Each structure stands twice: as C-alpha cells, then as structure tokens.
C-alpha cells in the first residue's frame, strides 16, 4: 500500500529528524537516502524533506534521474 505524506510529514524526512531523506516531485515521494549526491546536509543548496517539483526543472539533469529512485509514496494535495 502506498503511503500518502502531508507536507508536514515529508518535512520530517530531512536526514536529521528522521534518518531517511525523501523529496517530492510532481506529487510522488522519492527516497534519496542512499543517493551519493544527497549524502551531505544538502544537494546544491536543496535540503531533503521538501517538494522540488519546480526546482528540478532548472536542474541540469531535469527529471531524468527520477526513474532510478525508489518511490515511497505520494504527496497529499
């Protein structure tokens, strides 16, 4: 069963409050916990636990990296 995260719940998955690092893109929540680029406190100034649906459009990789990431749920509207 897919978990639905509120924005408040997602914010807990920042690698500090909870050890996992999750982000949302277009309503889908991805697990970045084991992604080397996200191993520090932030990734190019972006902190886990947030919705980066708009920001990813400006990233050099765009959405091409998403297919490699584990999906852990969806973000509530």
From TrEMBL:
SUPFAM superfamilies cross-referenced by the UniProt entry: Cytochrome b5-like heme/steroid binding domain
Residues annotated as domain Cytochrome b5 heme-binding: 5-76
InterPro entries xref list: Cyt_B5-like_heme/steroid-bd (IPR001199), Cyt_B5-like_heme/steroid_sf (IPR036400)
Superkingdom, taxonomy of origin: Bacteria
SMART domains: Cyt-b5
Protein name: Cytochrome B5
Source organism of this protein record: Bombilactobacillus bombi
């Amino acid at each position: 069963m897919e978990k639905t995260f509120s924005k408040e719940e997602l914010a807990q998955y920042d690698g500090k409050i909870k050890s996992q690092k999750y982000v949302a893109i277009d309503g889908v929540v991805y697990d970045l916990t084991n992604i080397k680029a996200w191993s520090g406190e932030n990734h190019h100034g972006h902190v886990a636990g947030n919705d980066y649906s708009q920001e990813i459009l400006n990233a050099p990789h765009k959405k091409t990296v998403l297919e490699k990431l584990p999906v852990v749920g969806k973000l509530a509207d």
